[in-house]
Write the structure tokens for this entry.
Amino acid sequence: MTSKIKSKAKPKAKNKSKTPAKAPAKTTAKSKAKTPKTQSKTVNSKKTIKTTPKAKAPVKTPNKAKTPTKASVNKAKTPAAPKPTTPVVTKNRVAIVVDRSGSMQSNRRGAVSIFNNIAETIKKNARKGDQETEVSLSYFNNDVEDILVNEVASSLKAIAESSFQTSGGTALFDAVIQAIKTIERTQAKDTAYAVVVLTDGEENTSLAKNPDVFRALLQKKMATDLWTFAFMVPHGYKARFLSLTGLPEGNVEEWADIRHADTAATAGISQYYADRRAGKTHSKNFFVQTDLSKVSKAEIRKLDDVSGDIRILNVEKESDIREFVESKGLTYTKGCAAYQLTKPEEVQDYKEIYLVKKGTKTVLAGARQILGMPSSGTAKVVPGNHADYDIFVLSTSFNRKLVRGTKLLFIKTI
């Protein structure tokens, strides 16, 4: 029996030596202890097999080197598109076109003054609103003469009166067409264009005589929403020019004397820049004038009667608004009073506008819309025909100078 058991054991040992690879799967714990060398080799081989993926991992995932992640792509793009270090500048090209026909002789000095005042207003507003501006100036009679061509506003200098010699007719169409060509020589997306014209008569000597073609040109430009045209015309000519040009009513202003034209021009330029600062690319209400002559009684009746909340005070002498109110034994607080409009003023959209019927104590509020004032932004308002009413503007200043002989509205509920 003993010999048989030994003979059976021997073949098993031979099989283990022949097939060592299968041994780890079939051997027991006892046999593993007897063959430490074989097991050691097997364990090492297993480690090699198991660690192979780890060794290959860097090769399979070279993402950081060969395939950049979104984060790395963004980092790479950042230097190529750096944030701007200076604010975006709004660009404007403004052309001033002045009639120097023979009939302008009596207004010769005033016409030059108008341009110089416009130039100063442009420089001031360009600095204030960070708006890059180039200015052109041309005179016209039978012919058109360019005095300045796309000059940087900051370098503008006063024009001498001697440069303005009057004679001849009125080539209005030619002058406006040439001004358009001058300021649009180079165009940019962030540039707006304005043509401001002063004339004391109608077209009579242009080579481009067809009024329909002239009107079509202006309409084409205005359709881009980048062009503003403003005309200062003789008294009684406004309706005719509106029909001729198709301009918005607020862009044609009548002038009876050169001083009025000067005030209207500078106020209009200020309004244009106020619109530009508000993000608009053109002005449809270039000349904001308080004209009540065409406002119907029905429109006025729609206003709010606030007479019971208002005390009307007479201003006997020039003084600060706060000083004046307190001299009447009243307490001054911001926004408690409204001054009478007697000269061009910048009026913000949050300021109330009041009407007071002359010779009465009737005070009406909410008159901004019927006066054609914009509902948003700051408007440069020029006193016009107030008919049977006085116009008052809410003041938010402590030191506004009140004009002697005017009135002040004190709001009792403030």
